[in-house]
Prior knowledge:
Helices cover about 55% and strands about 20% of the residues.
Amino acid sequence: xxxxxxxxxQGIWAHKLRSVLTMLGIIIGIGSIIAxxxxxKGTNEQxxxxxxxxxxxxxxxxxxxxxxTYDLSYQAPxxxxxxxxxxxLEQVKALAEVEEASLYRTRNEYGAVFNGNxxxxxGNILGIDSHYLDVYGYQITRGRGFTxxxxxxxxxxxxxxxxxxxxxxxGEDPIGKTVEIKGEPFVVVGLVARKSGFEPxxxxxxxxxxxxSDYSSGMVCVPDSVWPILYQFDEPQxxxxxxxxxDDMTAAGEKSAEILNSSLSVADETIQYKGEDLLEQxxxxxxxxxxxxxxxxxxxxxxxxVGGIGVMNIMLVSVTERTREIGLKKALGARKAxxxxxxxxxxxxxxxxxxxxxxxxxIGLAYAISSLSQAPVAISVPxxxxxxxxxxxxxxxxxxxxxxxxxxxxxxxxxxxE
Length: 418
């Protein structure tokens, strides 16, 4: 085998230009597939990252009516949905997939938060408990957070995020100043921001519509004990849990929803708690482009077919050129298997080198595409391994006919060949 490999390299080196041209189809095919697969994988990872976010593994469990969240802005609280008690919350926290949990209430309001004549349009107002910021991955960047006295004393204090602060105060320091929420004065005690500063990658209008809504609106937080001053008493809460790992997010959402639904006694069976399955959403978005991606890979594979035909053609030429050499070897006692193995090895080495060069070209092409289109790249090691093996198999498959022809040559006719 080693002798066959050595002879293969000698043959390739002796005909360098011909060998490079022969390998060109393999190089282009493998390079195209590596670039496509790497770009696809990078895009899929971006979709998952955009939805899951900065890695805080937070999953929201909200009250739904059918396929839509139950909107308390336009509907009265449904009968049979109790306020989530401490015992129920402890059951959720006891789940193996859940690291921490928090209760909150929320409204998306237009024209409900003012600072003088400045208004927060489309802002989210949240009534939060003492664990919400930690569970959702927020930190205090200025001022302070809520204290126990804020909750127990039903103090009208508020936290703003960067967007809400910019809209309401336009660059001024908001700490200690007052904003009006639903006509009630609230003192701003702190500013909050996500710990990782994560923002989704927006490359198109579709991406903007899909991801940006959760990050573009301003957020105003008040203690949950103050919520009845702004809205109804005994209003159903939402739950947010922090899963132990990203892979636990789906199970954490489903199991938490089951616990909350066990306490419902609603006449309308479509009203129930559901956990948002971000991983499933990511999988659905990834599947949308799967058919197109497969077509691109098949198109790139045509280059491999063309490259394989080129290998077979050049190997047939090589057999013709070396007919006398083959006849001499057979006259000296070389068996068919030896001749067959030599030419198959040469074909495999030829395509194997083409595959390795194609991998390098594919990685370079993937990063070139990324720099031009801002598409993310994630190099797939399994794809690289498959590419090398596949290119070698192409050499073996398309080298069989020339190798068999060489092995079946009559030694007398071969020696007489001009």
